[in-house]
Amino acid sequence: MNFEYYLSRLQKSKFRSGFHLKEKDKKYYFEKGEEKLKEHARDFVKKRLAPSEIANDGKQTPMRGHPVFIAQHATATCCRGCLEKWYKIEKGKTLSCEEQEFIVNLIMAWIKKEVESEN
Question: pLDDT digits over 100-110, tens only?
Fold first, then answer.
């Protein structure tokens, strides 16, 4: 799937376009590898976004500490409210495997773009 449409839409948001990976985040990406980061993204999405009810929705994704967290804020995949607003994925239902995979792949597309850019 081509994520350019979503990434270009997100770039038009002053808030979303303000997120970038720092050098330490890029270093982490290269040390761990793309597959390991994708594994982390899958785990975070499954535990923090996929359940139908999330006790701390809107606050479950830290603003720093892992490249995936930064990517989640940049791609509006940080909470169910953002998923509903940006992608019309409604709150109150468990995310399907397809929805989870869409989110993970979007996160990874953003990370790859960041790693390849000079910022």
Answer: 999 999 999 99
In Å, the largest CA–CA distance within the chain is 39
Residue 55's pLDDT band (cuts 50, 70, 90): confident
- This prediction's pTM: 0.93
Please provide the size of the chain in residues. 119
- Chain-centre distance for alpha carbon 97: 16
- What's the rounded Cα separation, in Å, for the pair 94 and 100? 10
| Residues 11, 9: Cα–Cα separation, whole Å | 5
Q: Is the pLDDT of residue 63 over 60?
A: yes
Q: Which two tokens stand for residue 77?
A: 């995949």
CB atoms within 10 A of CB 38: 16
- DSSP of 3-21, one letter per residue? -HHHHHHHHTSTTGGG---
SS3 at position 21: coil
Average pLDDT across the chain, whole number: 93
32-36 contacts, C-beta under 8 A, 24 or more apart: 34/108, 34/112
